[in-house]
């Protein structure tokens, strides 16, 4: 029974990796940019790129609260 569970998990993991690879391939070749910035509307292919971009907006907000000398 344990061996069956382990084999099932390995199969599931490999299928998940293949699915993620196909999604990545589709995004790359179609030019699709499914991730959008809620602050400025810029679009990105990868979620990580959107997260890095959003830091620009959060840093601008924190710097705008600092009084000028």
UniProtKB/TrEMBL annotation:
Keywords: DNA-binding, Metal-binding, Nucleus, Repeat, Zinc, Zinc-finger
Domain C2H2-type, first and last residues per copy: 35-62
Subcellular compartments: Nucleus
Entry keyword annotation includes Nucleus: yes
GO CC terms, sorted: nucleus
Highest rank taxon of the organism: Eukaryota
Family label: Belongs to the krueppel C2H2-type zinc-finger protein family.
Protein name: C2H2-type domain-containing protein
């Amino acid at each position: 029974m344990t061996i069956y569970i382990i084999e099932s998990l390995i199969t599931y993991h490999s299928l998940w990796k293949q699915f993620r690879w196909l999604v990545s391939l589709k995004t790359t070749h179609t030019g699709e940019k499914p991730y959008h910035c809620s602050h400025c509307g810029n679009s990105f292919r990868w979620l990580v790129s959107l997260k890095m971009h959003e830091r620009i907006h959060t840093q601008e907000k924190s710097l705008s609260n600092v009084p000028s000398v």
